[in-house]
Amino acid sequence: MEAVRSATDTSVDPEFGPWLAQASILVVDDEPGMRNFLIRTLGPRCKHIEEAADTEEATRKLDQHHYDVVILDNIMPRKNGLEWLAEQRAVGFFADAILMTAYADLDTAIQALRAGVVDFVLKPFRSNQILNAVARCLDRLRLQRENYVLRYELKATSDHMLLRDRLIGQSAAIARVRETIARVAPLPTSVLLTGQSGTGKEVAARSLHALSDRAAKPFVPVNCGAIPPDMIESELFGHLKGAFTGAARDREGLFLHAHGGTLFRDEIGELPAATQSKLLPVLEDRRVRPSVPNVRSPWTCVSSSPPMPTSKRRCGTAASVPICSSASTLCRFTCRR
After folding, report:
1. Which structural domain, as residue segments, surrounds residue 141?
2. Residues 194-250 pLDDT 10s
3. What gap in Å lies between CA 331 and CA 334, rounded to an integer?
4. How far is CA 244 from CA 252, 282, 293, in A?
5. Does residue 155 fall inside a structural domain?
6. Count of CB atoms situated within 10 Å of the CB of 291
7. d(Cα 173, Cα 106) in Å, to the nearest integer?
8. How many domains does the chain have?
9. 140 in the same domain as 16
10. Does pTM surpass 0.70?
11. CA distance linking residue 192 with residue 322, whole number of Å
12. Which of 19, 76, 107, 124 could form a disulfide bond with 138, CB atoms 3.0-4.6 angstroms apart?
């Protein structure tokens, strides 16, 4: 049986709040008398109400329609209400559930909480008791939705303020940089920042990290130009004990230190060509090889480099970093004169 509130009936019951008139409700009970009572009580006050005589029929109706509240009897043939509810929760049923039961024992209450019941009423009950229980569920649902929207708006506002405070300026160019960083930050892709020294590449990298899902994880900056060429591979990839003279113990590289976070490699154009070629597979499949076995580690790599002179591009020197071919160029920074 299905009952639908008339579209022209916009009256609101002041006693049970405005949300009941917009609610969709499913009643699951094997007793026809109880189902009829709930239909007569709730039908005139809610937008849409349906009934199911057992859990199998209830499952079919859930597959066909969305319900804000499910009113559920516990003791039914073949499968009780709490078992059915636990199964539905496991496959993605998130609507609020109200349990009707004539057995108010502690075990039933504990099982109800574990199955995700948000309220329950004891049989026999009056009409105002079930109406109040439904109204509480709808208020809870409304508060959850409002909370989510407000959190989203607050995060969007804080992200905008963070970029405004870190990347100072009102020009169209800096506005485009802020917009690009905010758009790229949620993505796990590698990023290349280019620009002259002192133009704010590390500030942009830290802003990108702060706006990403990795904000709570490490931000590891490394100046590739300040590390001796014979030590750079060990610093980035790490090494195992005995890999070379003086390697007395295993050492994790900076890639593994940035596990789950962001590795910022400044002045990447200063890396030796041999090291640059070894970085390509690291960016492509996120596997770091200290010396032997590959270790898979989630992180995002942000690299910076000064603008590449035309003569060096043509000659193919170390400044023409092959690693850049597998990273998306985010921004180019220039000095303000």
Report:
1. 2-146
2. 888 888 888 888 888 888 888 888 888 888 888 888 777 777 777 677 666 666 676
3. 10
4. 15, 22, 16
5. no
6. 16
7. 65
8. 2
9. yes
10. no
11. 12
12. 19
Cα dihedral sign, 124-130-133-134: positive
pLDDT per residue as tens digits for the range 55-73 = 999 999 998 898 999 999 9
Helices (H), the chain: 32-42, 55-64, 81-90, 106-115, 127-166, 172-184, 201-211, 232-237, 254-257, 273-285, 310-315
76: Cα separation from own chain's centroid: 38
Interatomic CA distance for residues 159 and 165, integer angstroms: 10
Q: Identify the burial level of 102 via C-beta atoms within 10 angstroms of its C-beta, where 0-12 means exposed, 13-18 middle and 19 or more buried.
A: exposed
Query: What CATH number did the domain enclosing 173 receive?
Result: 3.40.50.300
Strand partners, 69: 25, 96
8 A C-beta contact, residue 232 and residue 272: yes
| Residue 285, both tokens | 């499949």
14 cis-preceded (ω within 30 degrees of 0): no
Long-range contacts at 280-288 (CB < 8 A, ≥ 24 apart): 280/322, 280/323, 280/326, 282/237, 282/255, 283/190, 283/323, 283/326, 283/327, 284/326, 288/237, 288/238, 288/253, 288/255, 288/256
Spatial contact of 141 and 20, defined as CB atoms under 8 Å apart: no
Give the residue from 81, 113, 146 where a domain finishes: 146
Tell me the C-alpha to C-alpha distance, in Å, between residue 315 and each of 215, 275, 312, 320. Answer: 39, 19, 5, 9
**Are 196 and 307 a contacting pair, CB within 8 Å?**
yes
